[in-house]
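Researcher: We're teaching a course module on how sequence relates to structure. For the next exercise, students receive a sequence and then see the predicted structure as tokens, so they can try to spot secondary structure elements on their own. Here is the exercise chain.
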Amino acid sequence: MATFSELCIGKRLCAAISEMGWTEPTPIQLESVPEGMAGKDLFGQAQTGTGKTGAYAMITLGRTRAGSQAPTTVVMTPTRELADQVSKEMRAISSHTKHRIVAVYGGASISEQVQRLEEGCDVVVGTPGRILDLHGRGVLVFDAVKELVIDEADRMLDMGFMEDMETIISLTPTTRQTLLYSATLSKEVRDIAKRSMREPVEVSVSHDDVVSDLVRQYYVEVKRNGKMDVLRDIMANGDPKVVIFCSTKKMVDDLYSGFSAEGMKVGALHGDMPQFRREKTINAFRKDRMNVLIATDVAARGLDIDNVECVVNYDAPLDPETYTHRIGRAGRAGRTGVSVTFITPMEDRRIPTYEEYMGRSVERVTRKQIQNLTISNPELKAMTKERMKDDRNGKTSKPKIKAVISKEKPIPLSDVTVLSLDVGKASEVDRVMLTSHIISCSGINEDDIGRIGMGSNSSFVEISTKKASDVIKALNSSKLKGKRIRADYAPEKKRCKDKLKDKP
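Model: And here is the predicted structure for the students to work with:
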């Protein structure tokens, strides 16, 4: 059995790891840590849960001294949750080395983050937007950076962070060591690695487990314009709890808009959705407030819900690894599940590649057969009804679902102040992006934001009156899409009867 001391990371790191209860290195740690400790750039393919955080933590903490004023390590993550998780794990691993770790991300007090950075730190873990915001304020400098980590690179691309990522990479010293980790090695990810790394060592340990026997796999041959009809058949077959995978964000939006217009309770997940909305949607799906979730692959990463009955590949994935990862969402916790993949005439070779990869067959069915498949699980339905009982009167209740896409349908606020911002559609900013930026900069809650009106070069935003002055201060020191924002109280509009009074 391999030991952590064999990785040559030093006694103090080994002592901390032992106190954490880790007994032996994971495959990604065994393969990448020795290469990283030798100073080589790393290009690693690894899923969440494989020990990759521990791998790059050992490398970066093992190669840098504690006690710096400016950070020597910067770790980029796609979400604040991952930034928080990574920073906690790095603090535990550095308990004996005394490296100071600071997490920076939107939705938290920026003044506290500024204060911690000014006190000095060794490692900064954060989301690209907040990292650049703090750099723009002159608080976070990159001159001393020796280690740059890009975690979940594919997910950051899906969330639209390409430009921010490349800006941060360009601002760090060219002599740095770069460690990039991604669950998938797409062309875009490889292009980033090529531009930012020097002869990187490639390490891959992300091969998915064999698909559970509890997932019954089917495919149906369908023309592209006939997919929606087949999808409706599946959703009407016992009203199953279903995850629908699409290959593009546009297709997710199109399906969501269509079903929502019909009054259906559906959720959507893709990279343009702010993190707080992603959390809200997943929570509603987990608590059975909606039965249908439409998602792209990367946006659904980390979706761990036991009672998914059916997975639909609305767009058949190109590679078998993505296929197995998708359909593995069903058949969890010992329960049976069903997967249905739509295959167009141009995609007829994909099923054989899936079958060869898994070592098992995928059954062909017709549309009529789909209508007669057993998809919904009665036992799960009974459990769902029990969970949804109202504790007060013992009756089954149907919770109301709020809009989950953007501030197109905002919750009215009782006491609001309207703010004027000098940014609009001409800057390629939409309501979702603006809402996310306001929350990220000011730390207010989504419920403190009301309606948003957008023009070409300006916007008007309703903010809870008690939070308005703080929001103005936060926005006036921020940038969005590279543009510094000016925010102020909007001029008060006179009502019609007041205008008439002013007339002579």
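Model: If you want an answer key for the exercise: Residues 387-412, 493-504 have pLDDT under 50 and may be disordered. The domain at 416-489 is CATH 3.30.70.330 (Alpha-Beta Plaits).
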